[in-house]
Amino acid sequence: MNTILSNWQVVTIIEGEHKIGKVLWGICVDDMTCRFSAGDYVCTSRITDFNSYTKLVKTTSGSLYQILGEGK
């Protein structure tokens, strides 16, 4: 597991009238990669896989995020 986020949201990025992709935004609870400290705001690269059952999110950079609680 790489990074655990709480208070998360999935944000759609739009340029003009085109959807570019979606990113994950949230607050770091724990980060095993040491990129973020607890309490930091995190905005990911584009989401490539979102599994609502396992609460795991993968991004284009290859990072893996676990999301806690209900997001938006």
Structure write-up:
It contains no helices and 6 strands. The chain is an all-beta fold and 72 residues long. The chain has one domain (3-67). The chain has a 6-stranded mixed beta sheet with strand order 3-2-1-6-5-4, with no helix packed on it. Strand 5 and strand 6 (64-67) form a beta hairpin. The protein starts with a strand and ends in a 5-residue tail after the last strand. The mean pLDDT is 95.
Comma- or semicolon-separated keywords:
72 residues; mainly beta; 6-stranded mixed beta sheet; 0% helix; 60% strand
Task: Report the strand count.
Answer: 6
Average pLDDT works out at 95
Termini separation (Å)? Answer: 22 Å
Poorly predicted regions:
none
Overall SS class: mainly beta
Radius of gyration: 12 Å
Helix content: under 10%
The percentage of residues in β strands lies in over 45%
Q: So how many helices?
A: 0
- Along the chain, the helix and strand elements come as EEEEEE
Number of domains: 1
What can be said about the biggest beta sheet?
6 strands, mixed
Adjacency order of strands in the biggest sheet: 3-2-1-6-5-4
Q: What general form does the structure show?
A: globular
TL;DR of this structure?
With 72 residues, this protein is mainly beta. The protein is 0% helix and 60% strand. The protein has one domain (3-67).
